[in-house]
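User: Can you recover a sequence for this backbone? Please restate the input before giving your answer.

Assistant: Of course. Working from this structure:
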């Protein structure tokens, strides 16, 4: 089930796990398994991948990174097929991604000869890349009545949906603001008019989807398998420059 209506879908290069995620979600539809439990599954898969990367088991690391991406799509897919969206799941998903991203770059710093400052810069760049992708994607989803659990401007604690506790939403949203708030503000300031601008064309969204975490993990996996771990941090630093290119293109439309 897509996050967007059929007429406004685009080729999302970060969402390659969606077909398998749909199979998993439909298989779990009539079970007691919850979307949050699937999110815990992708968090575990990501941690296993990081451990494998640390010890040099790069093929296993790649496998578990891809599995993480599939399960990352499956939790939201399960929420949709069960008609059980929640802010708890939305923020827990984002916080889990943040933790995994930190672990990935800490391990890359330890297993390569790249300095900590560059690892930190690459992490910040990766986070900004993902924030721009999510920003544009959420604008589309809100504009065309797709999935609306995510909000364009996360400026206030949302009211809990049916089936979730407001206390959990409050805590998770607070952590979301602490960890993601600065990245959101940077992207908002760089392209504050995106939500009021013209329709984001599919070709631009496909290009920006290379900033999605699924595609980022795919790139990391390929580079690990090829023995290019030393180049992962420099790559994400340089690739962050495309943030300004994509914004410039969007503003020119």
């Amino acid at each position: 089930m897509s996050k967007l209506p059929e007429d406004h879908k685009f080729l999302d290069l970060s969402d390659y796990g969606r077909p398998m995620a749909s199979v998993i979600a439909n298989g779990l539809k009539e079970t007691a398994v919850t979307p949050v439990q699937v999110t815990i599954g992708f968090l575990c898969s990501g941690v296993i991948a990081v451990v494998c990367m640390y010890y040099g088991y790069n093929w296993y690391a790649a496998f578990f990174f891809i599995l993480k991406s599939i399960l990352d799509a499956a939790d939201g897919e399960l929420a949709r097929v069960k008609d059980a969206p929640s802010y708890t799941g939305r923020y827990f998903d984002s916080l889990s991604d943040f933790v995994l991203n930190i672990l990935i770059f800490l391990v890359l710093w330890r297993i390569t000869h790249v300095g900590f400052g560059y690892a930190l810069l690459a992490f910040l760049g990766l986070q900004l890349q993902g924030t721009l992708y999510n920003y544009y994607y959420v604008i589309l989803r809100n504009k065309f009545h797709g999935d609306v659990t995510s909000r364009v401007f996360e400026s206030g604690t949302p009211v809990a949906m049916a089936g979730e506790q407001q206390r959990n939403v409050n805590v998770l949203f607070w952590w979301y603001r602490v960890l993601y708030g600065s990245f959101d503000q940077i992207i908002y300031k760089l392209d504050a008019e995106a939500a009021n601008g013209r329709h984001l064309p599919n070709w631009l969204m496909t290009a920006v989807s290379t900033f999605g975490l699924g595609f980022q993990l795919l790139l990391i996996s390929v580079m690990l398998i090829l023995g290019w771990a030393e180049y992962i941090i420099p790559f994400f630093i340089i690739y962050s420059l495309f943030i300004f290119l994509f914004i410039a293109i969007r503003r020119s439309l």
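That completes the design. DSSP finds ten helices and no strands in the chain.
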